[in-house]
Amino acid sequence: MTNSPDNIVQGRAVYMEFINGSNTQQLLVMPEGVTTSHKTVPMTIYRRRLNPVQPRKTWKASAASHRSVDLLTASSVVPRAEVPHTITAFMYPLFVSLQRNGYTLYKQPIVVEVTAEDLELARIGKTPYKTMARVWKSRKALGFPKEYIHAPAVSF
Length: 156
What we know:
By secondary structure, the chain is of the alpha+beta class. The chain has helices at about 70, 85-90, 90-100, 115-125, 130-140; strands spanning about 10-20, 25-30, 35, 40, 45-50, 60-65, 105, 110-115. The chain has a domain at about 5-65 and about 105-140. The protein is built from 5 helices and 8 strands, in the order ββββββαααββαα. The radius of gyration is 17 Å and the shape is globular.
């Protein structure tokens, strides 16, 4: 059995599900990595908001404006200690918005492997459905509900 370069693990993606009443925000954070076309893709986040009125929505993607390759060179003006903050800064407004709007993390984050093929899809702006399939399998194994939209909690 041979390993195809397309299927070699390039990193780990993190899936998070946030809920607020019957609204569900799904996030998938893809790592920076090298694609099948040997290009470096920056860290990318996929997100979508689901609710009973709109139970099926497409994923929206946002990518970091900086890559570690560029920030860790000798000619970079960013101090080494600031590189992680600079790369992940594009995600901060989203997480602040989730917090301000009362969303809470449902269960725990799920970490799945990402291949070069998945990163290639992220590079061209398409949804990496093989990564999503790994998330759905893990989601099921961890006891998440079958439906993505959560029923609002009833208070007594």
